[in-house]
Amino acid sequence: MPTGPEIILTLKVLVTAVTVLFAASLWAIATGRRKLHGRINTVFFVLTLTTVLGFELLIRLGTDITSQFSDEAKRALTIHLYFAVPSALLLPVQLYTGVTHRRSFHIAVGTLFLILWTGTFVTGLFFLPHGG
Question: What are phi and psi of 53, to 5 degrees?
Answer without folding.
Answer: -65, -40
